[in-house]
Amino acid sequence: MAAAPPPPSCCLVALPPHAKDGLVVFGKNSARPRDEVQEVVYFPAADHEPESKVECTYISVDQVPKTHAIVISRPAWLWGAEMGANEHGVCIANEAVNAREPAAETEALLGMDLVRLGLERGSTAKEALDVIVALLEEHGQGGNYYEDAGSCHSFQSAYLIVDHEEAWVLETVGKYWAAEKVTEGVRCICNQLSLTTKIDAEHPELRSYAQRQGWWTGEDEFNFSEVFSPADDHLHCCAGKDSLEKQEEGITVQTMIDILRDKASGVCIDSESFLTTASMASVLPQSRGSPCIHYFTGTPDPSRSIFKPFIFVDDVKLVPKAQSPCFGDDDPARREPRFQEKPDRRHELYKVENHWFR
User: Fold this and answer.
1) What's the CA gap between 9 and 356, in Å, rounded?
2) Rg of the Cα trace of the chain?
3) Mind telling me which Pfam families this protein's record contains (predicted)?
4) pLDDT at 320
């Protein structure tokens, strides 16, 4: 039986010379089940006790001595994030993908947990990548991507990890992974594996694993997406990349927002099953003395949502209107068997904007 298609999200980055004024411009549309609520949440930097644990969506992992301040957009039922940024100008977003190896249904770390963990622990894009792959090696990935008691929807994960100077595309299959460094131009990742023969870092056993599975002979040039993509997955150019490349040079954060709002291109999703439930756009100046500005919708459908700016400053004030109700240990997502009920997770901003546009 063919695996269910992953939600058709889109992550994009533009670096000089395509981005204007030496900036790095990042964007993500998060396509999720239509009725799912995303919240925008800020967590301050924190120090942690030795040998303490952090409880992620399904499992707990060892905490680190210090975590960075982060702002994230996340489905309100889980611990991790679809996308976000930290105080050091690192932005991460992930994509659910299918691969030749079916994703594990056993509860482990979700790709979205790894987004948040990378932001909390990495002060550069490469540091965040190293954090993600180390946790992947130790704990694996798996579990239900949706708040759904009726069926387990599990996927492999791909990530776009960006800072002031560069971007990394990280794609994973189980604990195995490959990554490409991007230092100029534009890049987009969608819900397919996209790495080919340009691989700048990889799991030490990646190629031997592919050979053991009979997916690569060892004689041809190693092409990651050809080796690990499902047989029925035909690599196509991401609609977002087409839109970015048409801009040539001079891409700004407004350009990125316009692309994220574009339904005709397929970047903005509004289908029977999926909706772009939240969006993010960020502008990262190359000078670390200038502030990064991160724009979040916190509401569905960017074509009719306002992108609200966020800047990391001292004494950030929380914005409760964009935060969903907290159900604590009584949350059906935390009790086993999970998801036996679906509580009302709508926050005030969601209620107001959805009512306004009906």
Assistant:
1) 25
2) 19
3) Peptidase_C69
4) 87
Distances (CA, A) of 204 to 97, 138, 178, 201, 208: 22, 14, 10, 9, 9
Chain segment 320-348, per-residue pLDDT in tens: 899 999 999 999 999 999 999 999 999 99
Q: Yes or no: say if 285 and 23 are a contact pair by the CB < 8 Å rule.
A: yes
Nearest to 193 by CA among 243, 153, 162, 157: 157
| H-helix or E-strand spanning residue 349 | helix 348-357
Residues annotated as part of the active site: 11
Question: Which has the closest alpha carbon to 85: 95, 74, 75?
Answer: 74
The identity of residue 120, as a single letter, is E
Cα–Cα distance, 157 to 155 (Å, whole number): 6
List the alpha helices (DSSP H) in 230-336: 239-246, 253-260
Contact 56, 108 (CB under 8 A): no
pLDDT, tens digit, 9 for 90 and up, residues 36-67: 999 999 999 999 999 999 999 999 999 999 99
